[in-house]
Inverse folding.
């Protein structure tokens, strides 16, 4: 009973979210729809797992080659999901090559099964996959090739996990930098949650690899030890699905926002500016923030600042980076925090709540205000206000 429950738990988690994604299909963007493919592959994978751990030998022999494909496909598919969030505005079918290892090894496995006699399949199932009876002294060539396939699967799976982690984190890092260089309000635009999920997926895969090295047989004989891999996989799948379901912003939205005003920018020549021209441009930029206080607009964007300066966003971004060593988002938030420091101790704003002060300073919500304020001052705004009042009294 315990074995059946925990082997079915990841299956039910995936099935639950797959239904939700399908019901919301019409309102979904491309990355969200692609995640349905990921969940579908995961569903088949855990369906095969369930049959294995519940000793449905005949069914598992049919599903084993399918399990090979799904096992080696989940991480490449999740990597491409990250690409759709961070770099690809639409699905590029050229990237199907990342599934080649999964396809080749699953076909290799299927061909071997077709060539094996019923006796060889029985030996492979009971002696290699389950170790439920004593080993024969020597295996046939086809069984040895199946054993080689099992070894190759472990090696390829490990490589895929490491590559997904490395290239996935790099895509997320580059995307987040683009977001911070264009928006002053990055709430729900960055992919910090996706990054954390990627780390957790790697932890889950480590549990899987350790489980593989221990051997599935051990878990069939000691069902209570299935609890750890079952729970970690279920949590990871729930997290991936939950965050993916709520993630509505992607590189497509960023690209569309960046193209607003591109026609007017194209009329301004991209000729290199001299040092004196950069100095003048920086003074104009500072004037916009100090005198006009444009940072109070919670949705201020780089292209809007460039338009007010009569230049293009490339120059403005370079200007902020070279003169202040900041991204556009950090630059705007620095002004907002400095302004909030002033009004926090102002008698005019004594009765205002922290939420009201955050909105007055240009922040879209209190949580972003807290993060930016603590990052600069090391203490929350409320404590900052109390300390300043004590000093003044």
């Amino acid at each position: 009973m315990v074995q059946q429950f925990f082997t079915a738990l990841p299956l039910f988690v995936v099935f639950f979210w797959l239904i939700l994604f399908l019901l919301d299909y019409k309102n979904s963007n491309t990355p969200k729809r692609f995640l349905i493919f990921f969940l579908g592959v995961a569903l088949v994978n855990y369906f095969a797992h369930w049959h294995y751990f519940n000793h449905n030998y005949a069914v598992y022999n049919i599903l084993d080659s399918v399990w090979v494909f799904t096992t080696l496909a989940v991480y490449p598919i999740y990597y491409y999901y990250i690409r759709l969030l961070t770099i690809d505005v639409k699905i590029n079918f050229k990237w199907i090559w990342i599934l080649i290892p999964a396809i080749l090894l699953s076909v290799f496995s299927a061909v071997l099964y077709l060539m094996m006699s019923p006796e060889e399949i029985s030996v492979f199932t009971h002696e290699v996959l389950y170790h439920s009876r004593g080993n024969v002294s020597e295996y046939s060539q086809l069984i040895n090739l199946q054993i080689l396939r099992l070894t190759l699967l472990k090696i390829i799976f490990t490589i895929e996990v490491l590559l997904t982690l490395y290239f996935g984190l790099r895509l997320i890092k580059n995307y987040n930098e683009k977001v911070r260089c264009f928006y002053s309000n990055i709430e729900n635009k960055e992919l910090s949650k996706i990054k954390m999920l990627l780390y957790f997926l790697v932890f889950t895969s480590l549990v899987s690899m350790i489980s593989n090295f221990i051997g599935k047989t051990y878990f069939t004989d000691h069902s209570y030890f299935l609890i750890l891999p079952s729970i970690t996989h279920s949590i990871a799948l729930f997290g991936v699905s939950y965050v993916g379901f709520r993630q509505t912003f992607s590189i497509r939205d960023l690209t569309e926002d960046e193209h607003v005003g591109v026609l007017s920018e194209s009329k301004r020549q991209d000729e290199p500016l001299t040092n004196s021209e950069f100095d003048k441009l920086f003074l104009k930029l500072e004037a916009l923030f100090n005198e006009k206080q444009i940072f109070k607009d919670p949705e201020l964007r780089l292209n809007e600042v460039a338009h007010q300066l009569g230049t293009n966003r490339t120059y403005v971004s370079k200007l902020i980076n070279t003169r202040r060593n900041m991204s556009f988002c950090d630059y705007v938030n620095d002004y907002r925090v400095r302004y909030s420091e002033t009004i926090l101790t102002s008698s005019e704003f004594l009765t205002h709540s922290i939420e009201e002060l955050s909105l007055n300073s240009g922040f879209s919500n209190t949580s972003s205000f807290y993060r930016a304020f603590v990052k600069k001052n090391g203490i929350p705004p409320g404590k900052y206000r109390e300390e300043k009042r004590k000093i003044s009294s």
